[in-house]
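Hi F.,

I've been meaning to write this up properly since the lab meeting, where we talked about keeping a consistent format for the predictions we share between groups. The idea is simple: the sequence comes first, exactly as it goes in, then the structure tokens exactly as they come out, then a line or two of notes. No screenshots and no reformatting. I'm using this chain as the first example so we have something concrete to point to.
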Amino acid sequence: MTGIATLASSAPGGTSAPLFADDRELAAGDVVSLTESGVARLIVAVRGPVTITAGDRLFALNASGGLWLPAGQGCRVLGRGAACVRMVAFDRPVASMPTMAQMFVLSPLVHALIVAMAAGDGARCGTSDRDGALAALLVQELSALPERPLRITLPRDPRLRRVCEAIVARPADDRGIDEWSREAGMARRTFTQSFRDETGMAFAGWRRQVRLAEAAERIAAGQPIGRVAYDLGYESSSAFTAMFRRTLGAAPTHWMRRN
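Output, unedited:
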């Protein structure tokens, strides 16, 4: 943990919203579990990809995105390589923010504000005018952020969930449904029906959502489309772009600008 900084802010409407920020370094496979508490959090991937599980929802997070975690909800942060996550915690309600876990596209201004907050040395009490102004502006900017529309729902069945977590860890894994049903120890028909019942989607559509979510985060973080397509198991960038356009209605770069 580095650079803890405690700040006091005034949210819109005059609601006091003290907060603090800290960094967590993760290696591949490292897990940080955040328990349910009265603290709301904004979680940002400063470096490297991470996967966050909050309830029955899963989020693939890279440097362009941030996850809002409301008070009363815990989560599990999994490092998928050398990574660093920054967590800004609010110990009082922020009325303008969602009451459920939600991922956002972070603006350069929000990134800069979070960097400024985490630059403290732990001795700062957060009572200066500058600290208050930074925190108040962060709250205002958070409430105006666009939501990342892609959502991934996790099944409750531990056998299906194990399969889903393996796919999220390696989105390019192209094993077919027969192999995954054997991995889960289920008959193919049981696997497909249970998967649809628990996630509301067919297995192939769910896996496509995982790849799209991963692709959106990587492209927003500045990775070339060709590299993203290759890493996610597509034979060419044109095949990847066609799938992206077919599913989301626009080519990757156009979709990212719009969202």
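Notes:
The first strand starts at residue 2 and ends at 7.
The mean pLDDT is 79.

If this format works for you, I'll send the rest the same way.

G.
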